[in-house]
Amino acid sequence: MKKTYLGSCHCGFIQFEVSADIDHVRECNCSICLKRGTLNFRVPLAALKILTTLDKLSLYQWGSKTAEDYFCPRCGVLPFRKPSQPTRAEIEMGKLPFDGWAINVRCLSGINLEALPVKKINGLLL
C-alpha cells in the first residue's frame, strides 16, 4: 500500500517527500554504494517531491556521467539519486533503462528498516 514518507538529510537542509509502497531495499556492492552504505528503493519520477530545490544541492557524477548523485553540501548525506543508464553491452544482456529515482531509505522518517527484505545488487559486474 502506497504511503507518503517525509525524508531529509542528516542536518535537515534537504527536505523531500516520496510516495511509495516500500516492500524491500536494494543494497548495491559497487564501489560508491559500498562506501556510503545506502539502502535504496526505486520510484518513478513523479513519486518524489523535492522540497529543497536541486540547485541548492551538490551533484556528484563519475564514469559514464549518466547517474546523478545529489547530496547535502552541509552534512554530506545523499538522500536520493538518479541511477545510471545501462551501457550498450548491458542492454544487449537484457538490462532495461530506468527513468526514476533511487531513494536512500535510511533518510526516511517512520520506516522500519529491519522489517524490509534486502535485495542484493551486484553493481561490481555492471
How much beta, percentage-wise? 25-35%
Class computed from helices, strands and strand pairing: mainly beta
Please bin the fraction of helical residues. under 10%
Q: Assign an overall shape.
A: globular
Uncertain regions: pLDDT < 50 for 5+ in a row? none
Strand order of the largest sheet: 4-9-8-7-6
Number of strands: 10
Mean pLDDT: 92
Number of helices: 2
Order of helices and strands: EEEHEEEEEHEE
Question: So what's the oligomer here?
Answer: single chain
At the first level of CATH, the class is: Mainly Beta
CATH architecture: Beta Complex
Largest sheet: 5 strands, antiparallel
Outline the secondary-structure elements.
Blueprint: E1 3-8, E2 15-20, E3 25-28, H1 31-36, E4 40-44, E5 48-50, E6 58-60, E7 68-71, E8 80-82, H2 88-92, E9 100-104, E10 118-121
Parallel strand pairs: 3-10
Antiparallel strand pairs: 1-2, 2-5, 4-9, 6-7, 7-8, 8-9
Can you describe this structure?
The structure is a single chain. With 126 residues, this protein is mainly β. The chain has a single domain (3-125), classed as Metal Binding Protein, Guanine Nucleotide Exchange Factor, Chain A, CATH 2.170.150. Helices cover 9% and strands 34% of the residues. It has helices spanning 31-36, 88-92; strands at residues 3-8, 15-20, 25-28, 40-44, 48-50, 58-60, 68-71, 80-82, 100-104, 118-121. The strands form three sheets. The protein has a five-stranded antiparallel beta sheet, with no helix packed on it. The protein has a three-stranded antiparallel beta sheet with strand order 1-2-5, with no helix packed on it. A hairpin with a 6-residue loop joins strand 1 (3-8) and strand 2. The radius of gyration is 14 Å and the shape is globular.
